[in-house]
């Protein structure tokens, strides 16, 4: 199988012009419709069966690029119907057909459906291929201005504050650039939690509506971004990129400031627990500092 000749033209998957049997994961645009690859269009044009997270979105994309459905079956496959839809796709593969699967936007399996489908196809011995393309993760890394030589995609944080802070602490010291997806309704709260768990001075970028008309990238420290987004109504798809942990030690002035702020509104025990968790330091050590501060005051 070849992807193109020496002129860069896309070639069919087989000499006869039809796709070879197998499951093809096709990355679709995250915004601009022209961001789909030529090979992705070839696969959508030549597949025997089309499957999609949202069949309406795929139909619209095909219409934009002049690809007719020509009576081919189209299967809806998403997180809520995977168990029922998977056998349909596997039956098509068993019949020797080619199946193209497209997520609503971006690369299938990357915070999008398709993982169980791919595993099932592999387990049955069918070919699983990909037409790589748009990904919000890579797009955000590219424009963030942060290191890209080592990164970790963490996906969506938990919805509630306490669960989110506990979850974020697991990533605070990782020596890699961190990439998160977040709802526009919660990005302000998430940035506040990031400041507590990763430190206000760490560099970050908030990327909104990438490749779309109102694309926006705001860069700064986590503390600066948290202040900017506090109480602000935000719309669109959000990707938050955070600079890697550098193993910075926390000095007594920083710890003292954090304790004083909390001691003004909570008990010594609770203040020590929260600061120890935020800084990933021994609770006993922080508790002794809190007791001394309270006594001195």
Number of domains: 3
CATH superfamily of the largest domain: Tetrapyrrole methylase, N-terminal domain
Class derived from helix and strand content: alpha/beta
Tell me, what's the shape? elongated
The total count of helices amounts to: 11
Largest sheet: 5 strands, parallel
- Sketch the topology as an H/E string, one letter per element: EHEHEHEHEHEHEHEEHEHHH
Quickly give the CATH architecture of the largest domain.
3-Layer(aba) Sandwich
Measured by DSSP, the beta-strand proportion falls in 15-25%
CATH uppermost class of the largest domain: Alpha Beta
Number of strands: 10
Catalytic activity: cytidine(1402) in 16S rRNA + S-adenosyl-L-methionine = 2'-O-methylcytidine(1402) in 16S rRNA + S-adenosyl-L-homocysteine + H(+)
Subcellular location: Cytoplasm
Keywords: Cytoplasm, Methyltransferase, rRNA processing, S-adenosyl-L-methionine, Transferase
EC number: 2.1.1.198
